[in-house]
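Entry 14. Structure prediction run on the chain below.
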Amino acid sequence: MRVDSGMAAVVPAWKLIELLNEGGIKMARDKTESELSEKDEGASVLDASKPDEFARFEDLTRNLVRVPKRELDEKRKDES
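Output returned:
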């Protein structure tokens, strides 16, 4: 009996990277990124030099945890 696994083929990751970095595909990707950058002032292009959303969330969480309890209690009293 044949069982359908839902997959047509398994391709190693290095082969996919090789494919994505081929000349024609890389040129098309670079052109699209350039067009998006000009159109949206860089908003649509991933910029690894800027902190990512998760890092910003971690920083915010750390800052919230460091707030002294007395300060929080006073804010809660003011809100009541």
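The chain has one domain: 13-79.
Filed with the rest of this week's runs.
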